[in-house]
Amino acid sequence: MSTRIDVAGLHKGFATDKGPLAVVDDVSLQVEDGEFIAIVGPSGCGKSTLMRMIAGFIAPDAGHVLIDGVERTRPGPQGILISQHGSVFPWLTVRQNLMFGLNDISSKQEKAAVADHYASIVGLKGFEGSYPHELSGGMLKRVEIARALAVKPAILYMDEPFSALDALMSLRMRNELLRILERERHTVLLITHDVEEAIHLADRVMVLSPRPTRIQATFEVNLPHPRKLTSPAVQELRMAILKELGVEAEADPVDARA
Ligand SMILES: Nc1ncnc2c1ncn2[C@@H]1O[C@H](COP(=O)(O)OP(=O)(O)OP(=O)(O)O)[C@@H](O)[C@H]1O
């Protein structure tokens, strides 16, 4: 395996009304090609800032990000960011939104077929001709996820992609994502507040410290897919990660948002 993402000594702070705010404090990490990394950490610790720096949307104050050995200074074509805020075009239908960005396909018919395929993967069959204002928040989120997947980016940056979905749909999207990754092997960086989701999906879970954030602990998830979430191994790992986050682990699933 080769190193896809190489992050060294990243620092970032912001100037605020109350003075300088140190947000990211000396973060280094390597992500191998095809690896799935989940990032968990207390609310407001700097997870999104870290991911946006890695994706090239924010410049670090110090340190560097190499993607495939080349320094990243702005968003590149090999990575797509799915953010909490959403970026579906309101004036385009679901199909047109999904066709957007499929520049490698010249035939319009083929583009539409790919779009419809990804719409059905995320449970939006029958809504291909609908406009965003006709959809619920969860459906919009799924359009966004489908749009990112349809482009088959080498790197998927996912910032709480499933947090707007109900529990069943979130589980379904996780399973679909795993199925897609089995075939297409994207490299994935996922921010989540859901420890169980992190263990379900990732090869490695990184726990970030409170702000200014650092990598506080790393957990390898050496469990084959499909992972049984009720298994003792998953529960043990969940307890260990929650403990690292300073959350008292109980028998029932716990939300790690502080
Ligand atoms: N452009 C900015 N200017 C000033 N402060 C910022 C800016 N962007 C982020 N911050 C601050 O940096 C801190 C970290 O924000 P960030 O969104 O990275 O955290 P997070 O861990 O992703 O949060 P959450 O868990 O709530 O999604 C917060 O205190 C936020 O207010």
From TrEMBL:
SUPFAM superfamilies to which the protein is assigned, alphabetical: P-loop containing nucleoside triphosphate hydrolases
Molecular function in Gene Ontology: ATP binding
Pfam families: ABC_tran
Ranges of residues in domain ABC transporter: 5-235
Keywords assigned by UniProt, alphabetized: ATP-binding, Nucleotide-binding, Transport
Protein family per UniProt: Belongs to the ABC transporter superfamily.
PANTHER family hit by this protein: ALIPHATIC SULFONATES IMPORT ATP-BINDING PROTEIN SSUB (PTHR42788:SF13), TAURINE IMPORT ATP-BINDING PROTEIN-RELATED (PTHR42788)
This protein's name: ABC transporter ATP-binding protein
